[in-house]
Structures are given as structure tokens and as C-alpha cells.
Amino acid sequence: MEASVQVTLAEVPLSPLPKKKVLILLKNYHKWRAECPELSANLQPSSILNLLHAGYHGVLRSRDPGGSKVLIYRIGQWDPKMFTAYDVFRVSLITSELIVKERDTQRNGVKAIFDLQGWRFAHAFQISPTVAKRIAAVLTDSFPLKVRGIHLINEPLFFHPVFALIKPFLTDKIKERVYMHGSNYIQSLTQHFPASILPQEYGGEDVSIEDLSQEWTNFIMESADYLQSISLVFQ
């Protein structure tokens, strides 16, 4: 584990965070990965390929005005009969491992848009207290990447109990960065993200979410060798 920490620290000078804080985050992350092999042992694209092909996840081509990388997740594309909550979270982990190498992302962090249209009880049943705690750990102090905002759209009423399960594990800072936009979200969402960078389906002027999902899936597949190399460290 120490050897892998040292390798990762080669990128620390790019980060705006104090080196000591980055080291703490990295150690927390390595500890988290060691304790959660079901999530992090296998980061190869093949482990979540069908979920990617379903169009579950995309990354905007342009950053927001503050320089943050913007990620989109479509819960309706997650079939809970085929994929577990761990599979779904592994998609986020793989993307995080790839974008954390970017200088601008290290400086300006990430924002995520979760489209909860299609959220069902079958999804909710997969979010146990253990899963909630492990998700919260990455959002708070177990990954050297700043979460600048979490935006929920189309969230149904029965999603709120699930969020209530995760919320106690979040820091106050992260709680303040969670926005619930509801089903009539376009006006409020474009107060945070200019229409010029959003996909057409979300009131934007850029390409479709399907195109963005395909582009990011291709990038993940092209990164398979790197992802396999960091998987082997923790197996």
C-alpha cells in the first residue's frame, strides 16, 4: 500500500490543497479501498460495461464557469435486476480515477447532476446503511477530489428517505452543496449551469446526453490498461 501511495503522490504538486492534506486524503482513500474490495478491487471497464452501454453516465464536454468538471447520472438507466448499487457506484469511482489526473479538475473539483426519473423501490432497497456510509466516505474525506455541488432533478418523494439515510454521514459543507430541483428543474438548474454546456434533454444547447454517454464510454474503454493497472494494486 505504501508504494502505491508514493506513486500517486507524484501528482500532488498539481493540487491546490496543502501537501499534508492531500497525503491524508490519499491515505484515507487507500484505506477505504482496502476495506471495500467489492467496490474497488476491480476497476476494469468490463465490470460495468453493460451499465455504460445503457447510457447511465456521461460527462459534459465543457466545464462550468467555475472550472468544475460536470458529470451526469441517469438513474432510470440502472436496472436493479442486473446491477447492484456497488456496480453503479463503481462507475463513479472509475470516472473519478480518470478525471482526478486533470490539473483543472484538481483545482476546481467536480459537480454532479443526478436525474432520478425512473427511481423505484427496487433501487431504494439496494441502498443499505453500509452502502450509504461507504458512499458518504468518498464524498467527504476519502478521495482527493473536491465535490463542488450535487444536483438532483426529477427526484420522487420516496427518494427522500434514502437521502435521509446518507445525509448523517455527510459533512456540513457537503450538505450545503446538495440541491434538489424537482421535476420543473430547467430554470433553477440553468442558474448553476449555463445552457450552452448542458445536453439538449436538460434544457441545454449542447449535444444529446446519448452522445455524451457514448463519448465517455469510449474514453473509459480507451483507459482500460490504466484502470487495470490500478485495480491490480488493490487485489
UniProtKB/TrEMBL annotation:
Start and end residues of each CRAL-TRIO domain: 44-210
Gene Ontology biological process: negative regulation of establishment of blood-brain barrier; positive regulation of amyloid-beta clearance; response to toxic substance; vitamin E metabolic process; vitamin transport
Cleaved signal peptide residues: none
MF terms in GO: lipid transfer activity; phosphatidylinositol-3,4-bisphosphate binding; phosphatidylinositol-4,5-bisphosphate binding; vitamin E binding
One Pfam family of this chain: CRAL_TRIO
A cellular component annotation (GO) from this entry: membrane
CDD domains: SEC14
Protein origin, superkingdom: Eukaryota
Name of the protein described by the UniProt record: Alpha tocopherol transfer protein
Annotated organism of origin: Terrapene triunguis
